[in-house]
């Protein structure tokens, strides 16, 4: 068989250093200047997230008070039309809100406490109800555990002593959390009062800076943000209140215990996309499983709530808000993940309003850039 000679690699092609492109100092500076805006924006975003994460105790009450004032503003204006001064109207609305919150907590504390006392027996009741379904799974788990014990006995090694550090007591943690929550609640109420006494927030937020370019465009952007977020929050609040009312009526018609509690949960947690409805659906399913005996009765309450939630998310809200505020589900989910990680439950409530603000600001910034390009082209 003839062999084909392998061509040797020329020595000139081995380990030849590749010279970087020769750039003049001016060209290098242009490259650096072109990359600087993106780097500055990235660093500013990271610094902002870092600040908002560690200053959550201060920033979250400000955001909650701002959004709460937007929702309550129509009530203040209604009292003003009746001749009541603006500050007095704001005080009346806030006192009514605080009274409603306290009354709701008092009325709902009894059923909530009953369910907390039943927690030890709930697990046994659930196991008894779903025992036919979980029997085979439990048998497989026990078989796997027995095999693991045999393997551990075959390769037994002396256990090392472990040092445990005692964590703060539950009482200390609960006391600190309650104190912090009370202080934040007072801050939210005070800031909401001040926001409600201001007629035009963007007029106070943006000073008249003569040398600022696109000053009118920025004023238009802030006005658009306030108008759009006001419409979004007020419509969303009305929709979630109706969802809570319908949920309470449905639970009452299906003989679920504490229907008012389920209505309040559905209305409040409705502000948390995906997570809130999942929590309410899970709680209704568990309570229905513990309350009723037949599978038909057990399935009806979660199905009723699921139908109401699906109708609200896919038909009612898109129809009322329109296409202008149509949000990408992926963007909503990512916003939920981000702000829940940064601010916890408060971040989950504020995730969608913040996303709406970001979208509006991005649209106006794109408009500013286009107008700047048109001016430079002329």
Automatic annotation (TrEMBL):
<feature type="transmembrane region" description="Helical">
    <location>
        <begin position="302"/>
        <end position="321"/>
    </location>
</feature>
<dbReference type="Pfam" id="PF01594">
    <property type="entry name" value="AI-2E_transport"/>
</dbReference>
<feature type="transmembrane region" description="Helical">
    <location>
        <begin position="232"/>
        <end position="254"/>
    </location>
</feature>
<protein>
    <recommendedName>
        <fullName>AI-2E family transporter</fullName>
    </recommendedName>
</protein>
<feature type="transmembrane region" description="Helical">
    <location>
        <begin position="31"/>
        <end position="52"/>
    </location>
</feature>
<comment type="similarity">
    <text>Belongs to the autoinducer-2 exporter (AI-2E) (TC 2.A.86) family.</text>
</comment>
<keyword id="KW-0812">Transmembrane</keyword>
<feature type="transmembrane region" description="Helical">
    <location>
        <begin position="177"/>
        <end position="196"/>
    </location>
</feature>
<dbReference type="GO" id="GO:0055085">
    <property type="term" value="P:transmembrane transport"/>
</dbReference>
<keyword id="KW-0472">Membrane</keyword>
<feature type="transmembrane region" description="Helical">
    <location>
        <begin position="88"/>
        <end position="110"/>
    </location>
</feature>
<dbReference type="InterPro" id="IPR002549">
    <property type="entry name" value="AI-2E-like"/>
</dbReference>
<dbReference type="GO" id="GO:0016020">
    <property type="term" value="C:membrane"/>
</dbReference>
<feature type="transmembrane region" description="Helical">
    <location>
        <begin position="341"/>
        <end position="362"/>
    </location>
</feature>
<keyword id="KW-1133">Transmembrane helix</keyword>
<feature type="transmembrane region" description="Helical">
    <location>
        <begin position="58"/>
        <end position="76"/>
    </location>
</feature>
<feature type="transmembrane region" description="Helical">
    <location>
        <begin position="260"/>
        <end position="290"/>
    </location>
</feature>
């Amino acid at each position: 068989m003839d062999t084909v000679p392998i061509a040797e690699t020329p020595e000139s092609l081995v380990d030849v250093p590749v010279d970087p492109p020769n750039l003049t100092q001016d060209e290098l500076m242009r490259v650096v200047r072109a990359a600087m805006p993106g780097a500055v924006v990235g660093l500013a975003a990271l610094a902002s997230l870092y600040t908002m994460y560690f200053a959550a105790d201060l920033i979250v009450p400000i955001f909650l008070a701002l959004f709460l004032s937007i929702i309550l503003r129509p009530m203040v204006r209604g009292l003003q039309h009746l001749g009541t001064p603006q500050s007095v109207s704001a005080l009346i609305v806030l006192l009514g809100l605080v009274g409603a919150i306290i009354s709701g907590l008092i009325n709902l504390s009894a059923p909530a406490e009953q369910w907390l006392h039943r927690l030890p027996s709930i697990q046994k009741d659930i196991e008894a109800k779903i025992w036919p379904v979980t029997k085979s799974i439990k048998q497989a788990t026990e078989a796997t555990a027995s095999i693991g014990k045999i393997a551990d006995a075959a390769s037994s090694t002396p256990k090392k002593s472990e040092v445990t550090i005692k964590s703060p007591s539950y009482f200390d943690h609960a006391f600190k959390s309650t104190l912090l929550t009370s202080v934040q609640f007072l801050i939210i109420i005070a800031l909401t009062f001040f926001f409600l006494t201001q007629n035009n927030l963007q007029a106070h937020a943006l000073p008249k800076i003569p040398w600022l370019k696109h000053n009118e465009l920025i004023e238009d952007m802030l006005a658009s943000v306030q108008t759009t977020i006001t419409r979004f929050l007020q419509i969303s609040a009305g929709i979630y209140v109706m969802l809570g009312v319908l949920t309470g009526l449905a639970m009452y018609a299906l003989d679920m215990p504490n229907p008012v509690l389920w209505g309040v949960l559905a209305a409040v947690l409705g502000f948390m996309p995906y997570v809130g409805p999942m929590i309410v659906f899970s709680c209704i399913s568990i309570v229905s499983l513990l309350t009723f005996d037949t599978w038909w009765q057990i399935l009806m309450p979660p199905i009723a709530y699921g139908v109401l939630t699906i109708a609200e998310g896919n038909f009612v809200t898109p129809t009322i808000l329109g296409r202008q505020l149509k949000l990408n589900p992926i963007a909503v989910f990512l916003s939920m993940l981000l702000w829940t990680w940064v601010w916890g439950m408060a971040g989950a409530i504020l995730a969608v309003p913040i996303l709406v603000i970001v979208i509006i600001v991005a649209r106006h910034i794109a408009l500013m850039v286009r107008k700047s390009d048109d001016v430079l082209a002329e």
